[in-house]
Amino acid sequence: MEYIVITIVFLVLMLIYFRIAERYNIIDKPNHRSNHSEITIRGCGIIYPIAFLLFFIGTSFNRSISEVNYLIFGVGLFAICIVSFIDDIRGASIKVRLLFHFISVTFLLYFINVYQQVPIFMVPVVYIFIIGILNAYNFMDGINGMSGLHTLVVLGSLLFVNQFIIQFAAVNFIVYPILASLVFLFFNYRKKAKCFMGDVGSLGIAFWIVTLLGLLILKTGELKWLLFLTIYGVETFLTIIERIKLKENVFEAHRRHLYELFSYEKKIDHRIVSFGYAFTQMMINIAVTLLPVSDIVLFPLVVVPSVIFYLIIKNNLKKQIVNN
């Protein structure tokens, strides 16, 4: 019953946000590199910080959960969501965004107790790695359903691990963002999306997912759970390498992602492309969860084939585009 009520609340709040966004012109207008042709409401990923607020309020009625200081996580989440929402509305400089990312990650690491469990010389590496993941998640949020479905797959996998393998977080700390994602997808996973997640959503939910992965990694002592982000990681890394080789500015907008070639050049329905990405990641997550092998074996076993298949598919697709 609780989850039904929360879902209805999310739906109502999303509809209210639609009215506010229309009133204050928080919209995404199509341009030369857009994958859409109609004006669409932007920033609907604001549902994720709202989901945390509802979760945080709920913890006050549960002593076992309230023993964890979720306020620390909340400050980090809201810091990155606020600067991202400002960027969605009117733009923010990369220096300001990175400053807030650094502040947010500081709260994240404090929340999962990294400073006491990781050697001090590794902390800068952890900062760079997490900020890289946050921005990779943002880079991949480009077509209808992509980030929403991927988020469902990752959070669903984490929920399975939490419930059936090892408990590392409060159940609602995983379920609430799942419900928020379902509501978002109701409006986004369409041929003509009614709304986009925006930076506030892609960076906000990435922050939440990284926190959960951090809790799981520290609980189990295994890095293999990072493979829950294999598809996003491989595509982002190889696309950046490609742009560097072409001497392009990696911070400028582009259309070199594989999913963009599928959806824009080949005109494949966004929903099909997004589902294909999510399904592939789900298969990887199942293997990561169930295969009884060590990190040193599992990483090359998953990453190497992923890189090879990605390169083969992308090169063949480029040839088809050129020939046509």
Features:
about 325 residues, two-stranded antiparallel ribbon, mainly alpha, single chain
Radius of gyration: 19 Å
Number of helices: 13
Task: Provide the β-strand percentage band.
Answer: under 5%
Average pLDDT rating:
91
Tell me the strand order in the biggest sheet: 1-2
Report on the architecture of this protein.
By secondary structure, the protein is an all-alpha fold. It has one domain. Helices cover 70% and strands 1% of the residues. It contains 13 helices and two strands. It has helices at 2-23, 47-59, 63-66, 70-89, 94-111, 123-139, 146-164, 171-188, 198-220, 230-245, 258-265, 270-290, 295-323, and strands at 27-28, 40-41. It has a two-stranded antiparallel sheet. It is globular and about 65 Å long. The protein starts with a helix and ends with a helix.
Set down the secondary structure blueprint.
Layout: H1 2-23, E1 27-28, E2 40-41, H2 47-59, H3 63-66, H4 70-89, H5 94-111, H6 123-139, H7 146-164, H8 171-188, H9 198-220, H10 230-245, H11 258-265, H12 270-290, H13 295-323
Antiparallel strand pairs: 1-2
